[in-house]
Design a protein that fits this description.
single chain, Rossmann fold, hydrolase, binds guanosine-5'-diphosphate, binds magnesium ion, GTP binding, alpha/beta, 327 residues, 8 strands, Four Helix Bundle (Hemerythrin (Met), subunit A), cell division
């Protein structure tokens, strides 16, 4: 029924590992079933239906502003297309959501572009527990799958366990991990960039310690880390990825603002979409992007803790999963 979504998907279905869409769907099932229930009622489109939809969207972490914008767009489409049945509203919502989310789907640069700037340095930042280190492990696998050589930098020097965790991901991926006992984050990453240059490595994935945006001294420290990286290599870091736990709801928006202000975030990784995430925060992020001179794309989404559980963000798949559309 919603084949227009599938036809627009840039990634051929055959290249999507089985199970990954299923994980995203089951992660977003709560929102999906609420929406399905709403539209299956069989009634007509009226103010009550819009009101119920508004409640579902807000409780799915879409946020007030994005919900309002989405509903205005939806009402406009309903009028334009002369829709009257509740069942027709689902298709219209899919259309409006896709329009909102589509600009977020800008994948990381192609392998050839990455190699042209080697070592391409990717710095991972975010709050504690967001999934930075795990995402580095998964990203190492993804990039190696694209034919790129990878090195990891254990830039989370605050806890010994963090270094060990990254070492384990290095072993799983059979890639070198640069770490120092007792060194500071900037020094470790500087060292890794130089080492990658010497060894002709394509990509350096730099881990950093988690921090709250309210910890001013730690936000200053991460700015320093970025400055030091650029001393090792003038254009680096080429990518600053902010890792967001999809379960943090509207707080994700303030994390985007604060980390972007401090570092100039070039992309997002939204993790834990396999859990009990409501998923709507992505619409809220897309909405704030509309007012930005430099919109921040969602590069990847995380749907689990295993090596293969990181995929480029594809707006069509996300909308289908969020709305519980037929496969
Ligand atoms: N279910 C699920 N768990 C995740 C995902 N990404 C990370 N985690 C888990 O979240 C926890 C924190 O991850 P970690 O990478 O250590 O976060 P960091 O503090 O930002 O480095 C770990 O238990 C990870 O296994 C994901 O996409 N899905
Ligand atoms: Mg970590």
């Amino acid at each position: 029924m919603f084949s227009f979504l599938k036809n627009l998907s840039p990634e051929p279905a055959s290249e999507k590992p089985a199970g990954w869409i299923t994980k995203l769907r089951s992660g977003l099932a709560r929102t999906g079933s609420q929406l399905t229930g709403l539209f299956a009622g069989g009634g007509r489109i009226d103010d009550d239906l819009y009101e119920e939809l508004e409640t579902i969207l807000i409780s799915a972490d879409v946020g007030m502003d994005a919900t309002r914008a989405l509903l205005a767009d939806l009402r406009h489409r309903v009028k334009e297309q002369r829709l009257s049945e509740a069942a027709e509203l689902k298709d219209a919502l899919a259309h409006c959501l896709l329009k909102l989310l589509k600009p977020l789907a800008q994948p990381l640069h192609a392998p050839a572009q990455i190699q042209a700037r080697k070592p391409f340095v990717i710095m991972m930042v975010g709050v504690n527990g967001a999934g930075k280190t795990t995402s580095i492990g998964k990203l190492a696998k993804y990039l190696q799958g694209q034919g790129l050589s990878v090195m990891l930098a254990a830039g989370d020097t605050f806890r010994a366990a963090a270094r060990e965790q990254l070492m384990a991901w290095g072993e799983r991926n059979k890639v070198t991990v640069i770490s120092q006992q007792g060194g500071d984050s900037a020094a470790v990453i500087y060292d890794a960039v130089q080492s990658a240059q010497a060894r002709n490595i394509d990509v350096v994935l730099a881990d950093t310690a988690g921090r709250l945006t309210t910890q001013a001294h730690l936000m200053e420290e991460i700015k320093k880390v970025k400055r030091v990286i650029s001393k090792a290599l003038p254009d680096a870091p080429h990518e600053v990825l902010l890792v967001l736990d999809a379960n943090t709801g509207q707080n994700a928006l303030s994390q985007v603002k604060a980390f972007d202000q401090a570092l100039g975030v070039t992309g997002l990784i939204l993790t834990k979409l396999d859990g009990t995430a409501k998923g709507g925060v992505i619409a809220a992020i897309a909405h704030i992007n509309r007012g930005r001179a430099h919109p921040i794309p969602v590069r990847f989404i995380g749907v689990g803790e295993a090596l293969d559980d990181l995929r480029p963000f594809v707006a069509e798949d996300f909308v289908a999963a969020l709305l519980g559309l037929d496969e």
